[in-house]
Amino acid sequence: MKSTIKEVAKEAGVSISTVSRVINGRDRVSKSTLNKVQQAIEKLHFHPDHVARTMINKKTQTIGLIVPQLSNEFWSLMSEVIQDELWSNGYITLICSTDNSDKENAYLRMYIDRRVDGIIYCASQEDPTGMQDQMEMLKQSGIPLVTLDKSAPGVSSVVGDHLLGSLNAVEHLIGRGYRQIAYIGGPAVSIEREFGYRKALMMHGLNANEAIIHLVKGQSFADGYGALKAVLASGESFDALFCGNDLMAFGAIKAMEEAGMSVPDDVAVVGYDDIFSASLFKPALTTVRQPIADIGKELVSLLIQSMEQDTDGRSARKIIVPTELIVRESSGALKNEMSLL
Amino acid sequence: MKSTIKEVAKEAGVSISTVSRVINGRDRVSKSTLNKVQQAIEKLHFHPDHVARTMINKKTQTIGLIVPQLSNEFWSLMSEVIQDELWSNGYITLICSTDNSDKENAYLRMYIDRRVDGIIYCASQEDPTGMQDQMEMLKQSGIPLVTLDKSAPGVSSVVGDHLLGSLNAVEHLIGRGYRQIAYIGGPAVSIEREFGYRKALMMHGLNANEAIIHLVKGQSFADGYGALKAVLASGESFDALFCGNDLMAFGAIKAMEEAGMSVPDDVAVVGYDDIFSASLFKPALTTVRQPIADIGKELVSLLIQSMEQDTDGRSARKIIVPTELIVRESSGALKNEMSLL
DNA sequence: AAAAGATGTAAAAACGTTTTGATTTTGCGA
DNA sequence: TCGCAAAATCAAAACGTTTTTACATCTTTT
């Protein structure tokens, strides 16, 4: 059923090495033997075994990808872009979704044992101590690594400009006259986004110390919903809300509507990411766009560079991708006549 | 940097085979050698090379998954469920998104060459002639295969009950008094859904021959938008719309709103799949729920069965999963007093 | 016409495991 | 102390390729 190079050699009446050279076009082969071999290959439906090949040339042509949650619109698009881009470059993609669980280590271990040629790692947690072990493991394995939104010494990374993105978003709200701006976020990048939020408040003379901030475990719709419930329960009043991502914004808006509040009339809302649903949502969500396709391509290109030069991670690069504020309905109109400017 | 079993053997002062037995717990090893070997393994950070293992025992512990479009909410959730379920069973997942292009063959070829232990194939096209070649290739390779929404002789499959699902959906519209029900759909399963649509019309004495049906190439938001534009351009009037999936429904609704039509007041809409966004959408979308998690688990369980018995596909099974109509706002209220019953 | 250089092909080593016989060591009753 | 089964270990073959080395054969050159 499954033929080997040996059988092809016998069929063609030549040696194994000759067949190998025909397959790989490595060396010169005479016209007549070329024909014989090609016919034998055709006849036996021979396809070189990739596993055996890997044994020799140490290349699996496989990349391991780790994302926090594949079912999340942001990550599924990111994964699609990455898979597609890798395929164009001759690689196939192993995808694992950590789903906020502690599978990351096991996934990485598995990737290493399988000798993937490279790893694209979108960490879900900003946990520096936990990361240490994993990074050590990866470094020891010598497998090229590229991370998203996560920096480590010696590894290339692509990071969104969360600080500036958030800053712009919050300034937008301030510019429209909102003064009591709350923030809800999850783990990881949400921390950086919180910085941008705080900075914007401070830059415009608002007291960041008494800002309304609520952080939760995840980044999903349910997390946003829960976060806003918690804010409401605290009894603090606010006229605008900045969210760690779009999905959380959707959840928060749901919670507000259930509480009889209207967006943007009672509360203006800004999200982050600009996933496709953001434009579909009603009210259409004002949000900070992250260029997902660009990020994915950048990640792949960076990884391929790392793999080619193989300079032991000495020349790690860090690419910062800019964001763009997309203004839609959810952030309302000017709240009063006075613009800040 | 990367240690081998040979080095471990030398370090522990035993033979390679002894180390192997320790690793796999295959045979009895004396307490003292066990300790020596374990310490050596520890010291050298040894992890057995999965590729070399594969050479021997012919198992990659890897499954190849093919989905039409990973960035589509339906497929990303499906992929997540499948990956997770496979991981629980000791398998890792290669994911490829065909994106309506002709990469399917290349993907399959790649999977076969890599000796994946099994393939889960969610075909994007209902093209029977094109499928022939691929199925032949797969059969020759002897790799266990499970398909979704696609039947082929000798292969196990999970199929949604599209006929009944659509039938119920359309009957729901009819029951509410709508009479001019249009249908828009894409390729593949949309065909079966069209049958259900037609059947419902006929069962209730509506003329299926002059039904308004518009089919397009894809299944995305843009496709739904385009399809509805085309329907509008045709000038035919309708008071309800059944869509091949939720995403298309969203697109269609967008197009209708742009044309000044209101949903559900002017036109009632029903989608298919019940992706997460369907409940978020405004108006909340009435739709036919497919139990994605169940389907994914069923696919995995079926595949694992195929792999274990390895009976050459003789005992192919076909599982039909039922759907559930989820009634929300988009299908409006009773259009007039007369219910059909 | 012999030495030197191309050219085409074959044999064998290597990749890192598992598995199979074969061989050594151990334990224990006679 | 000897013998022998059982237990523990080892050496070698196998998995299916690629690559290196070596050996013929056939052209050139001197």
Q: Please, what is the oligomeric state?
A: homodimer
**Proportion of residues in helical segments of chain A:** 40-55%
The CATH superfamily of the largest domain in chain A is known as Response regulator
User: β content of chain A, as a range?
Assistant: 15-25%
Please state the second-level CATH architecture of the largest domain in chain A.
3-Layer(aba) Sandwich
Structural class of chain A: alpha/beta
**Largest protein interface, residues of each chain:** A-B, 51 and 51 residues
Structure annotation, total helices of chain A: 13
Query: Which H/E pattern describes the elements of chain A?
Result: HHHHEHEHEHEEHEHEHEHEHEHEE
Shape of chain A: elongated
Number of strands of chain A: 12
CATH first level of the largest domain in chain A: which class? Alpha Beta
Overall pLDDT of chain A, averaged?
A: 90
- End-to-end Cα distance of chain A, whole Å, is 75 Å
CATH-derived topology of the largest domain in chain A: Rossmann fold
Number of domains of chain A: 3
**Main beta sheet strand tally, sense and closure of chain A:** 6 strands, parallel
Largest beta sheet: strand ordering of chain A: 2-1-3-4-5-11
The gyration radius over C-alpha positions of chain A equals 26 Å
Uncertain regions spanning at least 5 consecutive residues of chain A: 337-341
